[in-house]
Amino acid sequence: MDADDPSPGSSIGPTPDNRAPAAADAATMVQVRGEFLDFVEDTYPRVLRLLVMQGASRHEAEDAAQEAFLQGWREVLAGRWVSIGNQVGWIRRVAWNVHCRPPGQKRNQPPIAYGSELPDPSDPGQDHAALTEQTLTVLAALAGLPEPQRAVMALTLDGATDREIAVLLGLTAQKVRDLRKPGRAALRLALAPHTATKEGTR
Prior knowledge:
By secondary structure, the chain is mainly α. 62% of the residues lie in helices and 0% in strands. The radius of gyration is 25 Å and the shape is elongated.
């Protein structure tokens, strides 16, 4: 056999370096994880606020939001996250459904396979003690609305479209608009004394 012809197992000639693809994959995953955590930081307080407006306690809102973002991370690991067109709407829908799930129904929190855990956002949102007087007034006004009017108004205040609200609540877009009109009127009526009091103190 020619001495220049490497035999199987010979150290002569180039050897495949599997470390380069592995390093590239790891770097990509670090970037993807960082982007998802940025999304969590930006969106988590908003999800909490929406659920509190719907009547959830702080603990219930945190529980539902955390489970929603864990499910989002599972989508990241499966490579499906980038294919979700409206990621904010998706997270909102998952958190909403978790919050509305019948009491006692078993939770299926997905395992976190990369990085082990998602760190808590730096700003999880204000707790009830730190909420402004105006926000508390709005929450109280929302609490006085009947369902599904309250749900429509809470989602409207969160910036959801008529179509998103309709899909989430199982209504038609026209029904959403029909519920929003008296809901806005009721909120204006409930907030009017508060507004008048503020103007009178100026």
